[in-house]
Amino acid sequence: RCTSDPRHHQFAGRTTTHCAQSHPLPHRQAFLGVIAVAVAPAGVGRWEEMASSLDAPNLDDYLTADSLPQEPPRSLTLRDLLDISPVLTEAAGAIVDDSFTRCFKSNSPEPWNWNIYLFPLWCLGVVIRYGLLFPLRFLTLILGWMAFFTAFFPVRFLMNGKNRLKSKIERKLVEMMCSVFVASWTGVIKYHGPRPSSRPYQVFVANHTSMIDFIILEQMTAFAVIMQKHPGWVGFIQKTILESVGCIWFNRNDLKDREVVGRKLRDHVQHPDNNPLLIFPEGTCVNNQYTVMFKKGAFELGCAVCPIAIKYNKIFVDAFWNSKKQSFTMHLVRLMTSWAVVCDVWFLEPQYLREGETAIEFTERVRDMIAARAGLKKVPWDGYLKHNRPSPKHTEEKQRMFAESVLRRLEEN
Amino acid sequence: MGNASSMLTQYDIEEVQEHCSYLFSQQEIVSLYERFCQLDRSAKGFVAEDEFLSIPEYSTNPLSQRLLRMVDGLNFKEFVSFLSTFSARASLQQKIEFIFKVYDIDGKGKVSFKDLVEVLRDLTGSSMSEKQREVLI
């Protein structure tokens, strides 16, 4: 179709002559240099990471002979304008693998090598887990809930006022309920570091894998948390119980909400009677191997930030809650039918905003600490991109850089 | 998602390999299949436009819309064939044909001045005026 057209040959011919004159093989670093100019900072590290993973196609293979690095300054040729191969390669690279979807990939468990010995053992394991452990755990949970409600509702509604005793009892009850929850999935949790103290001017931040993060932390100290309102029985629990420990609600989609919530947060940390505030700055559940960008709201409150790192042991169960694939109920059932939930929780040293440090730098510094402690890889994407498209600003930025380089070279001619 | 490679038989892999003129190894095709299944969330058999656009790195690419018209609604075989142009083993001729197709998005068989300006517009956005682009080309 196009090969018979003489203009196409001309098009092709021009490109090939240029190719013959340039370097025969692209030097990988120089190529990455070209890409680094035109691409968001995420680009460079990802290529290397991807090229080194054995299963994925080697990204080096996607370098076309056309996309050779050019040394500036050089006279602007038509070829430079027409050669869109780096941009295309980048797009194809994103289709093949991208660092954002990787954060939300639930790792399917590797099937064992079955043989006459292991397979019956595994079957026995399934029978024990579903037939014995699950009913026992479910029973524990039901009994725990009943005990909790019989104690909680009288205290909540009959004891009047906001006196200290009432708050204390409610706190203890919530902690007890969370312990019951943890027992219902046989949680083996090791806490490292000093236990959080209840005093003003501090906020706790942690990485987020599932809603059970909250339960695990709540078991140790009754935190006040900032949460999105959920439907169903979770919403019911949020409304009745969590109100008592002092939770702040927000709506992800409401932009004006941000200011209101910011004010509420600030008020909360200043009051000494309030429970310590816990925030998950990622804003969404991530699969416990990566961390997405932290929102800086928690770091601008002008108080100490105490990082908490949580890491689950995948051998026992994958605790990542993929909210698109399962409801919370199904997630809990999965946890209750596994052997155990094993995790480590590290309470790290409180951090303060340093001299001359911006809020964003502070956020990144704390994120580095948490990622290093829990062995997570950092990814420079905003968690909300799970639900929304990236703003056109990023594309405009790339377009601007390309336009500037072209115009600059035009002027140099 | 489960074990994707178990849903592909050896015959399937070979058929796909043949379709892309053996530019991908069998292992690469298996990885691409996993990726395809990951992108195609509702298991329709093809990846829809909004599923491509949900990859942040892809949607911030200036040429994403143009490429979307070429890649939207492809089944797995065609998907692999589409990506095979990017393999190092692909011939220069194939790559140039691909670039030509990106320019000539309406399939006229010719690249006109208007096409060149349009692609340049995609690449530069609002940072360059229309006049500047025309002068440039």
From TrEMBL, chain A:
Residues 202-313 form the Phospholipid/glycerol acyltransferase domain. It holds the Pfam family Acyltransferase. The chain crosses the membrane at residues 114-132, 138-159. Pathway: Lipid metabolism. It is found in: Membrane. CDD domains: LPLAT_LPCAT1-like. It comes from the Eukaryota. This is Phospholipid/glycerol acyltransferase domain-containing protein. One of its GO terms (biological process) is fatty acid biosynthetic process. One of its GO terms (molecular function) is glycerol-3-phosphate O-acyltransferase activity. Its main location: membrane. Keywords: Acyltransferase, Lipid biosynthesis, Lipid metabolism, Membrane, Phospholipid biosynthesis, Phospholipid metabolism, Transferase, Transmembrane, Transmembrane helix. InterPro entries: LPCAT1-like (IPR045252), Plipid/glycerol_acylTrfase (IPR002123). Belongs to the 1-acyl-sn-glycerol-3-phosphate acyltransferase family. One of its GO terms (cellular component) is endoplasmic reticulum.
From TrEMBL, chain B:
Signal peptide: none annotated. Residues 91-126 form the EF-hand domain. GO terms for molecular function: calcium ion binding. It comes from the Eukaryota. InterPro entries: EF-hand-dom_pair (IPR011992), EF_hand_dom (IPR002048). Transmembrane segments: none annotated. SUPFAM superfamilies: EF-hand. This is EF-hand domain-containing protein.
